[in-house]
Amino acid sequence: MKIAVCVKRVPDMDVRFRIATDNVSVDEAGLKFDINDFDAWAVEAALQLRDKNAGSEVTVISLGPDVVQETIRKALSMGVDRGVQLKTDKVPFDGFAIAKTLSEELKTGSYDLIFFGKMSPDTSSGVVGPMTAELLGLPCVSAISSLEIADGKGTAKRELEGAQEIVEFPLPAVLTVDEGLNTARLPSLKGIMAAKKKPLEVKPAQIPAPQLTVRKLELPAERKAGRVVGEGAAAVPELVRLLQTEAKVL
Amino acid sequence: MANVFAFVETRGSDIRKVGLEAVTAARQLADKFNSEVHALILGPPGIAAKAAQLGQHGADVVIVVEHAALVNYNPEVVTANAAERIKSGGYRAAVFSTSAQGRDLAPRVAARLGVSVVTDVLSVEVEGDSIVVRHPMNIGKVIATIVISGSPAVIAMRPNVIAPAQNAKAGRVENAQPAIDPAAARVKVIETKQGGGGKLDLAEAPVVIAGGRGLKAAENFKLVEDLASAFGNAAVGATRAVTDDGWRPHADQIGQTGRLVSPELYIAVGISGAVQHLAGMRTSKTIVAVNKDKDAPIFKVADYGIVGDVFEVIPALTEAVREAKKHH
User: Tell me, what DSSP letter sits at residue A218?
Assistant: First the structure.
């Protein structure tokens, strides 16, 4: 089986972000970057399938400047066979422009399965996987939390609001990965050493003109400081009164 | 004429609230263009009878596709119908929902039309020739203003940011056929498992009660469920720690990697308020927190907090809410 996983380098979210002086980007000074969690689960899913199917190969693809090579190396150190960097100075906000760029590369690989994380927390859009599937004309199952592949077809579970769907699909297909599918392995020391010798191909990215432009970024209004109504069950009547008369939600 | 398209989401043989919200958002745009809203709805036989009410929410034309196979979401049929209608209708904008279904559908339709899409849209404006939207980034810690230059502008509204409007107009109903044979779709939903009888959806519920590690064991979620049933219009959520431990299904997780909710009232029960969790509920209108640790970060975002043992406070609150509801 030939499997591709598209991965993104994203900042750690556990910080207070600052807007850069250009007003349209986040100040990256002091931010820590790593592979998107959803993409790491996608890499894990690909590796598990490869290890079950002799003769399989996993390729990881990332769009961005040379720093994304760190992200690609991380996937290689988890066990991915080869990496491709689609080189560009700046990754656009527009998910359609990204999907176009990735689909041109994916087209050349005749992959049986193409994995994406279901979304990345930085742009918080979650559109690149399904858009790429459409551009490639492939069946797509998004936000899967279980997966089985046998005899050229797959079965996956999707979490809906208050329900679950069990879905069947033929290969080749595009899948986007939700939390709960697996736990991503950590790179072993041996894996980290091996990753240095694995092939990492750099190709110039051909990004079409974006149709979405970020005009400005802002920090959301802070919530006004809360108040403690009281302690223990004795505070319940006062809380109920406030919910009825002040917040008017009861 | 710059008409506006709205996609109306269904589940089984019911219209979902996010579908009414999409029609309302489309109506607001169409009013600025002085044009019509055309709403598309797909579902099993019988959905047409329910579709008539969409006129009251602002649809001038309701296009109904009924087929027995459409009782489940069929991504390929729905994508084909929506894309063909949007293409042939020459719409200026197309409005979807950022629900589980909408997150799957809106990008597919946009890609098929050769345009971009903005999901999780908080608000929409028309400025000259451009449609300008607000979209949360970095788990809601940054808000982006995005200018959409492509046409049609495809947007997917975040649930609960717009109240379904009522205007007493009747929509004109048109019937249509599935654009492709549902039986020919490559991806097939073979089963839909409902989670719990009539459970309200987290993204749509006006009240969300969420439980954390402070509940100490899976069975103690009964306290949270009892409080939810006292409200009657509440859904139950959980923190990542709780879903990772298997106390609740992953689908119930509220936070950075889980669901985003913004209900009228959010009650955090035994939740410390990790940044991961706050990312999923920060935009709730009113936040109540009950936690025994007075220094828990949840109290920094809670409008009203009670410092105390959840095993004493929550049953008392459940009783008080039941009483309050009785007198309404």
Answer: E
Mean pLDDT of chain B: 92
- Does A159 sit within 8 Å of B250, measured CB to CB? yes
Four-way CATH pick for B207-326: 3.50.50.60, 3.40.50.1220, 3.30.870.10, 3.40.50.2000? 3.40.50.1220
Among chain B residues, the shortest Cα distance to A146 is held by B250
pLDDT greater than 50 at residue B196: no
Q: Mean pLDDT over residues B303-308, rounded?
A: 97
Interface check A207 vs B, CB under 8 A: no
Given the structure tokens 């079950």, which residue do they identify? Answer: A52
DSSP string of A162-176, one letter each residue: TEEEEEEEESSEEEE
Q: Which of A121, A216, A26, A97 is nearest to B146 (CA)?
A: A216
**Strands A153-160 and A163-170, how do they pair?**
antiparallel
* Cα distance between residue A84 and residue A74, in whole Å: 13
A25 touches chain B (CB under 8 A): no
Mean pLDDT over B187-198 rounds to: 74
Looking at the DSSP bridge assignments, the partners of residue B154 are B94, B117
pLDDT in tens, A30-57: 999 999 999 999 999 999 999 999 999 9
CA count, 13 A, side-chain hemisphere, A101:
28
Interface of B with A in 109-148 (CB under 8 A): 110-112, 115-120, 132, 135-148
Determine what percent of chain B is predicted with pLDDT higher than 70: 97
- Choosing among 3.40.50.300, 3.30.572.10, 3.40.50.620, 1.20.1070.10, the CATH entry for B4-184 is 3.40.50.620
A165–B119 CB contact, under 8 Å: no
> A164 and B192 in contact by Cβ < 8 A?
yes
DSSP B254: B
Kindly determine whether residue B303 and residue A247, on different chains, have CB atoms separated by under 8 Å.
Answer: yes
pLDDT(B183) > 50: yes
Domain assignments of chain B as residue spans, ordered by start: 4-184, 207-326
B52-67: average pLDDT: 92
Interface test with B, best of A10, A31, A148, A161 (most B CBs within 10 A): A161
Q: What is the mean pLDDT of residues B157-162?
A: 90
